[in-house]
Amino acid sequence: MTGAAVAVTQQVHVNQARNLATSRARAAGLPRSSVDRVALAASELATNLVKYAVDGLFAVAATPGGFDLLAADRGPGIRRVDECLRDGYSTTGTLGTGLGAVRRLADRFDVFSRVPQGTAVLARWHLTGADSALGVRLGAAEYTTPGETVSGDAWAVATGRGVTTLAVSDGLGHGPGAAEASAAALAHVSAAGMPDEVLGVMNDALARTRGATVAVAQIDHRRHVLRYSGVGNIAARLYAGGDTAGETLVSHPGIVGKRPRTSRSHRPAERTWSSECRLVLHTDGVSQRWSAGDWPGLLRHEPATVAGWLLGQHCRRRDDACVVVIAGGDAS
Questions:
Q1: Is the pLDDT of residue 92 over 70?
Q2: What percent of the chain has pLDDT over 70?
Q3: Nearest Cα to 325, choosing from 166, 163, 167, 140?
Q4: Residue among 67, 168, 71, 154 at smallest CA distance from 112
Q5: Which Gene3D superfamilies match (predicted)?
Q6: Dist CA 201 CA 259 (whole Å)
Q7: Same domain, 158 and 206
Q8: Contact between residue 134 and residue 328 where contact means Cβ atoms under 8 Å apart
Q9: What is the CATH number of the domain that holds 152?
Q10: What's residue 154's pLDDT?
Q11: Number of helices (H), then strands (E), in the chain
Q12: Count of alpha carbons within 13 Å of 10, Cβ hemisphere only?
């Protein structure tokens, strides 16, 4: 799946955000009427970042069944979100269409805000006829190293026979070589085979690339089981029920594509999966120094909102970054 993000701190960035949103919306297959709504929403979200936010970040993401706009920042946050959803509301007293208009333009809308940390806003458009039978809800946010045109951090998902398999890959370095390595890995994401078997296939496929760190999570919906295997430093945290402490799922050291074929395969970790579970995966372009407990209520929001919040708050902004959040329940 594809995504991208741009920093939005000056008025000139508003046009960049709108152009990014409309080009990616067309590529995702949205009809012209929806692309027009995406353009309006992107302009409004980016303008708000310039006027009111600190370190604004605007992201787009195409996911199974949907196209997302995400606006995130590092402050000052919104004290009364319900008031901001009213047409004409503005913290400076000037007339503006505001978040209420964005909510009307989108098929799905969500916002999470904490004072003084910041805000994350999601606007989603459904893709007609797209596959939304994942059995989970999923959201993602990505960022490309400044100066590069492609990202080496990427993700992919596959579903079949009651199984959903998600992989996140971080190609070594950045630029085209890193993107090539991740593309080679993610081409082999499949609902068939255990996570360690998928990693074994990827290892062979990446032999002629610079290699990548990869995490593979697989949800068996019939058995209500999550299986996880990883190689390298992809961060993985599992949250069950209302737990905000979470459990870190451990990957094994190494680089996919550079592991000897004779190296022992590690049995995947297995955990119970339910509709209340949340799994967060991210590359090292996002700092691991965060805790969901610092943001009460965040994990009850849409997975895409959570991904946007984490990217906005903890993206290093000097390296590629990718965050994917998956939640139990029907895809939205």
A1: no
A2: 92
A3: 140
A4: 71
A5: Histidine kinase-like ATPase, C-terminal domain, PPM-type phosphatase domain
A6: 11
A7: yes
A8: no
A9: 3.60.40.10
A10: 98
A11: 7, 15
A12: 1
Q: Which pLDDT tens digit goes with each residue over 18-44?
A: 999 999 999 999 999 999 999 999 999
Structure tokens at 313: 């708050």
Residue 180 phi, psi dihedral angles, 5° rounding: -60, -45
* 213 and 115 co-located in one domain: no
Q: Which residue has the tokens 């508003």?
A: 14
Q: What does the CA dihedral 45, 332, 4, 312 come to, rounded to 10 degrees?
A: 60
Is the domain of 80 the same as that of 211?
no
How many Cβ atoms from other residues are within 10 Å of residue 188's Cβ?
A: 21
Q: How far apart are CA 112 and CA 116, in angstroms?
A: 12
Same domain (yes/no): 17, 36: yes
Please report the pLDDT score of residue 33 as a whole number.
97
Confidence tier at 330 by pLDDT (50, 70, 90): low
Look up residue 81 and give its amino acid.
V
Give residue-wise pLDDT tens across range 100-139: 999 999 999 999 999 999 999 999 999 865 545 667 999 9
131 inside domain: no
**Any bridge partners for residue 217, and if so which?**
166, 228
Q: What is the pTM of this model?
A: 0.94
